Amino acid sequence: MFHYLHIPLWPFSQLYGGIMRLRNLGYDKGLLASRQFNLPVIAVGNLTVGGTGKTPHVEYLLRLLHAYKVATLSRGYKRQSKGFILADNTSSAAKIGDEPFQYHLDFKQVEVAVCEDRVKGIEQLQQLVPGLEVVVLDDAMQHRPVQPSLNLLITDYNRPFYQDHVLPAGRLREPRSGAKRADAVIVSKCPASINQQERELIVGKVQRYTSPGTPVYFSTFAYGAPVAMGNGSETTKKVILLTGIANAEPLKNYLGSHGYTLLKHLSYPDHHLYTSDNLQELKELLQQPAYAGASILTTRKDAVKLSDTGLLPLTQALPIFFVPIEVQFIADGEMFDQLVLQHVQSLVHA
Questions:
Q1: pLDDT in tens for each of the 350 residues of the chain?
Q2: Which fold is adopted by the domain 4-68+133-221+329-348?
Q3: Could you tell me where in the chain the CATH 3.40.50.2300 domains are found?
Q4: Top CATH class, 227-323
Q5: Which residue in 167, 187, 289, 325 has the most C-beta neighbors within 10 A?
Q6: What Cα–Cα distance (Å) separates residue 161 from each residue in 1, 46, 53, 84, 248?
């Protein structure tokens, strides 16, 4: 996937890709320090900038590993704080980042931490969390100072890494050869109807860049019934969509195929922190005749920010609902579960 418009950017991509290759070579040869830990460290990441669906896959792992004492560690992208923070009842999306805050709200048994320095973050978790058995690293494919025990690479079916190019001509954070570090690849956001022939074709293209024998799995998003956050008890079929995520197309497609009429889409940048002005705009929109009786739909990731203490009274006054999302594996889900569980068992009970 390469357009003529990208040609002027190609030299810069070559330069950036060369720098990333040298960096990776430094870690591969042991010239740069990379730390292993004495417990399972599962990294979930991608080669691409933007939404490949990491968050729902992290949540899938947290549900899968419910029998263990688990912690998640993220950088806490766009948070208004610095350093190591272990989430507690004073945490907010602004303080620890929207995705970590979502894990904190939805997985009460999981310890959630943020730290720019993942080595220091894991060390702190080991000190502060008694009986810690597993750490799940969110968005850590390029964080080479930590050597994960299991490296899961996620690539978007709609924009697979093997068709993309390094920044700025494309959206890759590093060359495609970075896929060699993956212990398993998950092709996310697949249509549920994807057939075996197409899956085999994709596996062949992925495995050109991975280590020999690296398994490739396929996942899709399953959306649940909208959950009320505000003053409505049931959604109408006329909706305003409110999102601050990297790619809302799968959700829009789902709504369109389930009989919803999308009157307007208020689309903010990924990780957008909502303000009272944003909610005031929604309130005024609903007062216009064209939007009378409409419901507001949003994502779980956006919902955690709209539930922030300062915004909650405004949110609760609106007919606002979030659409839950879960990862479902296509065909080989049990094999993926087995891969993860056997890996964790082998290290926890070693």
A1: 445 556 778 888 888 888 999 998 999 999 999 999 999 999 999 999 877 889 999 999 999 999 999 999 999 988 999 999 999 999 999 999 999 999 999 999 999 999 999 999 999 999 999 999 999 999 989 999 999 999 999 999 999 999 999 998 899 999 999 999 999 999 999 999 999 999 999 999 999 999 999 999 999 999 999 999 988 788 999 999 999 988 888 899 999 999 999 999 999 998 898 999 999 999 999 999 999 999 999 999 999 999 887 899 999 999 999 999 999 999 899 999 999 999 999 999 76
A2: Rossmann fold (3.40.50)
A3: 227-323
A4: alpha beta
A5: 187
A6: 10, 9, 14, 32, 19
